[in-house]
Amino acid sequence: xxxxxxxRRFEHVALPHLDAAYNLARWLTRNDQDAQDVVQEACLRAMxxxxxxxxxxxxxxxxxxxxxTCYAWLRENRPAELVHFDDEAGPPEAAxxxxxxxxxxxxxxADRAQLNQAIAALPIDFREVLVLRELEDLPYRDIAxxxxxxxxxxxxxxxxARALLRVALQPEARPRTAVLRAxxxxxxx
Length: 189
Description:
Blueprint: H1 3-13, H2 18-29, H3 32-48, H4 58-77, H5 102-121, H6 124-135, H7 140-147, H8 151-168
Helix pairs in contact: 2-3, 2-4, 2-6, 3-4, 4-7, 6-8, 7-8
């Protein structure tokens, strides 16, 4: 296979998964520019080794390369973020409201922002499996292959990530918002 044919095949097979690659890199690095750099490097690596790609599962294959590239980048640029947790220890143990009212829209936007912050605050081991499962909708088997961990560990980390999110999103964990009330003339607000 010549270089042009390899490039065309790579574009056809791998490039449709760039959004998923960026999404994973963005959640792992927690920075748009860093994610773009990581995905670019991962695509260069993927292209370099594309001749060895066998099969029809390009998405997990590319995401595996993105994951490895992310971890290499994090080791070099932010080693403190690579704190791993024991999968055996467990953490302590939201649907959008209907309607299109402005206040409901504002509440949904605030809830989405809080959810994004809670996901970003998860330890990287939990964040990666949660992103791959919930945002990229990958099967557990593919997540295990991408993260290079046993299937049971995927399920354990996903369960712990969800539990940590539940705790982070509890009403008592949320910052208090001001309650609007009518103020009578002459009364201090």
